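Quick look at the format.
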Amino acid sequence: MSFPAGAHRDLAGGPGSAPCPVESFPALDSLSFLRAAFIQRCPSVETAADRQLALERLWPLHRQTAKTLGFSDPLAFAEQVHGDRVAAVDSPRREPIPAADGLITDRAGVCLAIYVADCAAVYLADRTRRAIGLVHAGKKGTQLQIVPKAIAAMRAAFGTNPADLVVQISPCIRPPYYELDFAAEIIRQAREAGVRDVFDCGTCTASNLERYYSYRREKGHTGRLLALAEITSRPSGKSAAG
């Protein structure tokens, strides 16, 4: 695929536009079976609070934004404990999947959702099997190799060949605002696992507080960015079970 490594685009506003700013990634937009988005900072919401309160304030706008963009409801969330567990999601669910930091599915109409605020949301899309994954990967998750583990989980569950994957890294914290470039390590790990098409938007969350939340720069009292991914269709004649 020929997209520039840093390519991404803001989704235009206008009548009926989403209540929160949103960006998307050309490498993912090119896949006809996939809907993917990254919800940015919501300027109308006061988020200088602890995580739970900030999320409670953001949730109504996040949910409405997802609906406006056409994502299914309810969203499937991971608990996100900075671990390496990857869970398969077969149907929409209203409670976060315990102890999981990565989600995978091959079911249409299941919207995977990951919150970040300096960590990366890593999108994985199998263009042959039409299966997807969404992973929360910061310093700890990257050290635990959660992205290669998600790739392995997709291979085991769906028969994914890593060479058929498109991997996209969201905005995340980067040097000089953070001592480690874990985005570069995610790229290395993905390529080592056999992925050819790895894309990184190259954007640093900590360097643009007008557009993104940053846990480090805002000293933990901030909101969360929301990554969304959903299969919108299955190949003709193929069951949802794959």
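Next, a different chain entirely:
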Amino acid sequence: MAKKSEKLKEQALPAAEETAAETVEEAPAAESETPETTPTLEEQLAAAQEEARKNWDLYLRERADLENFRRRAQKEKEDLARFANENILKELLPVLDNLERALEHARQEGSGGEESLRQGVEMTLGLFAKSLEKFGVTPIQAEGAPFDPAWHEAMGQLESADHPANTVVKELQKGYQLNGRLLRPTLVMVAKAPVA
């Protein structure tokens, strides 16, 4: 067995030496090819300058696109602010039309047309309230409710034996809320205990 392993070693050594010699012979050949394929410094500089020119051109184009986008966005924002109320105004125009019709009708009636004028104004008021409700505007019910400074603005106090203290007795101006948020507080008179 020892003889066999020695024979294998002897055969392996010359094969390894041949491989190493081939590698050494190939290395100089590779070195001699490298200088011919490596670009010169001038060529590298020209390539870098060309790439820089392309990148600068891309940068300028992107910058122009960004500026155009900013202008477009600003114009859209201005248009939105200018025409934001378009829908609500379209809903209010029929109310204006009905008020004009009621006045015209009252002028033609002369005297004695108070009842028809009152009915026309009531119908217009109902139409107006429905138009506001479409946009989330609802009145605040205050009379008889406890005074709440978040929803009511007290204009004064009235002595009242019929109402508990700090209760809204009279509504001077109706308040409104927009989708649950205060739009305008209700102007109220608040009850206070009578002086004995």
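The chain is about 65% helix and 15% strand.

See the schema section for token definitions.
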